[in-house]
Design brief:
Strand content: under 5%
Number of domains: 1
Length: 451
Amino acid sequence: MGNSATVKRGSETYRLVFKTLIAMSIPTILEEVLSTLIQYVDTAMVGRLGEEATAAVSTTTTINWLIHSVPAAIGVAVLAIAAKAMGAGDEKKLRRVSGQAILLAFSSGIIIEIIAILLSPYIPIWMGAAENIQADATMYFAILSTSLFLRTSSRIFAASIRATKDTKTPMRISLLENLLNVVLNWTFIYGLSMGVKGAAIASAISYAIGGLLMYVAFRRNKNLKCDFQNIKPDREILAETVKIGMPALGTTFVSCMGYVVFAGMVSGMGTTIFAAHSIAVAAEEIVYIPGYGLRMATSSLVGNALGEKDIPKLKITEEISIIITVLIMVINGILLYVFANPLMSVFTKSMNVINLGADMLKMVAFSEPFFGLMIVLEGIEYGLGRTKTVFYIEAFSMWCIRILATFICVKIMHLSLYAVWGCMIADNVCKALLLLLALIKKRQQSLYKES
């Protein structure tokens, strides 16, 4: 009788978790799609202006990833702490966390924007950009950086909102942000014939308005209400944020620095090769976006289950998240392979760039299930607040596999872009397998043992 009741409860929990995960992940997936569209629209519209314009916009892409490592890490920590407090029904702690989210968002946003603007003349040079595109690359990055305060703050506020199981609000704001960006892109790039400069202005305005709306949504969330007292430094919450956030920051930092070095080596292979590489990287994003959408929903649900101290629910959340993500990525990998050429042609008219980029997409299509597995496993670890494991794996795989192997292939053996993407694929597969081994090991530890 007891076993029958346990099986029935397990079955009900599976159905409940599945429905909740799908309901939460659909908005987060749409949000990721919409967020990526800003870069897609810029790349596609600027791509019509020629290879040099594309390279100018793409040169600082990895630097933008690096810049956002700080708010991304803070967002991971805030989500983990807030989701756990939400699951435990601790309203007082939720208010304290929301106050610190405001403090961290505003302080980090101001510092990041100032540094980015001051360094904008030097970044294209450090990235190894050709002299004929350095001026446009500098201008694009400097203009885009004027919205960094609101853009970085928005990430932290969005993470806080998702921790309360509200994933629809950030999605709606992203929708509005993207619609505005499309209109402004047409206006500035073509209507006013401003080219690369117009693309930067359009995106900067869109990001700024999106950031303002996200702050308003954050303040209106009934679970995140806080007064002035909560905005003052809270040692306990800040210490917990640092404990979770620093390894997450380290993960994003070593990853983004790896991308910077990686892109720098590719940029030295020629404008056409770099354009094909950059566009293919951007084109692949649409395939793995569902994985990142599911990761955000998974982190929230894992944190909630941890706060509830419901270990069976925690395990079921992990299992369902992994199964759904890998299945979606298998399908997306097939679609990426089939539509590689049409996808590349959306962004450029150059047949050389289209053909080379399509070959890269067909190669990476086979590794998409592993990439999806890596993404969702990171989400599980982040939801648990266990960010050190992800940091160690990311640092080892990125620098010992991707960067070292790419350096050997490009600088020593002088191989083609095919070898470079082979190194990238090997890195993603390695991270997925190591994270899976870490999860299997942790399932045998105290956190997963029912009392």
